[in-house]
Design brief:
single chain, 320 residues, alpha+beta, Arc Repressor Mutant, subunit A, seven-stranded mixed beta sheet, three-stranded antiparallel beta sheet, 35% helix, disordered N terminus
């Protein structure tokens, strides 16, 4: 009788705990690109890393595994809840943050990390909701980056890289992209913070620039609430940006001659509601200061194309 062959169980590395003796490997230029990409966005899924860095998906997934087990990348444990809500079936991509070894490698490569831009969010803040918001913001900005790689497109200056272009006083600030405005209320003046999810510029060959503040709405925030203290709402955000524009803080604090506020929201209905609230604030005619779109609009066209709707309700493209 022939001998019975038994299949040996395959070795499976732990998902969120590093092995004690990972296989040896040498860092490559692509590994450095991966670390830099994760540092730029604080957290990225393997899917977004592949999209941004390019190359063989399987090879990058193998490199990500090695980078994690050697301490160059982290896998925040809170993603267990996040990926359970974000994906209904199939393999779920890991989410990565920069590890201490990765930060050291970037510094040695001449890519110092800007602590004042708070990319190094404390692990305690990396909740499932925070991860989801960060990933969706990154997905939007990666769409811009890929669009700007096409022939004839403007150059993207994204968030961290804007720092040298800001006024000197702002560059020295611990929170250079955070502004504070004072709103007039029926009771007494109220000071609130204006904190964009992302800021970036599009630069053309003639050195002209278009400047933007990005707001990523996941569909969970109240749009119409008039409560300005103790509760976040999209109306509060609109009030803040409109006051910032009226006070010309975009110029004095950020050095922008002009700028626009881009909002990405899940549905056409939320766009309608946002435009309605915006008209209550700026006047029934609406304002071209505010532009709105959805992820599906961006995917169908391009973030640079006519995927946007102005505060006046008209279709618009970002490029002139």
């Amino acid at each position: 009788m022939p001998a019975t062959l038994t299949r040996q169980p395959s070795f499976r590395r732990p998902r969120f705990r590093r092995v004690e003796a990972p296989p040896p490997f040498q860092l490559t230029g692509r590994d450095l690109a991966i670390l830099h990409a994760v540092a730029r966005f604080r957290f990225l899924s393997s899917t977004l890393i592949i999209c941004l860095v390019g190359g063989s998906s399987q090879q990058i997934l193998r490199r990500l595994q090695l980078l994690f087990h050697h301490g160059y990348l982290d896998r925040p444990t809170s993603q267990v809840a996040q990926i359970a809500h974000a994906f209904d079936f199939g393999n779920r991509p890991f989410i990565y943050g920069l590890g201490r070894a990765g930060a050291h490698v970037l510094a040695e490569a001449g890519i110092p990390l800007k602590e004042k831009l708070d990319w190094t969010t404390k692990k305690a803040r990396a909740t499932a909701q925070f991860l989801a918001h960060t990933l969706e913001t990154a997905e939007t900005m990666i769409a811009f980056e890929l669009a700007c790689r096409t022939h004839g497109a403007p150059t993207l200056i994204d968030h961290h890289d804007l720092l040298p272009y800001l006024p000197e006083e702002t560059r020295e600030d611990d929170a250079p992209f955070h502004a504070r405005v004072t709103l007039k209320t029926s009771r007494e003046p109220l000071t609130i913070g204006v904190i964009p999810d992302r800021m970036f510029s599009l630069v053309f060959e003639n050195r002209t620039r278009l400047n933007f503040a990005l707001e990523l709405d996941r569909g969970t925030m109240d749009i119409k609430s008039r409560q300005l203290v103790g509760k976040s709402s999209f109306r509060r955000k609109l009030l803040g940006y409109y006051q910032l524009w009226k006070e010309s803080l975009h110029t004095s604090q950020w050095g922008f001659k002009a700028f626009r506020v881009l909002t990405v929201t899940p549905s056409e209905k939320r766009i309608e509601n946002m435009i309605a609230v915006q008209k209550e604030i700026v006047g029934e005619q609406g304002s071209n200061l505010f532009l709105f779109t959805t992820p599906s609009r961006i995917a169908e066209k391009s973030p640079l194309a006519d995927a946007w709707v102005t505060g006046k309700g008209a279709p618009a493209a970002l490029l002139p």
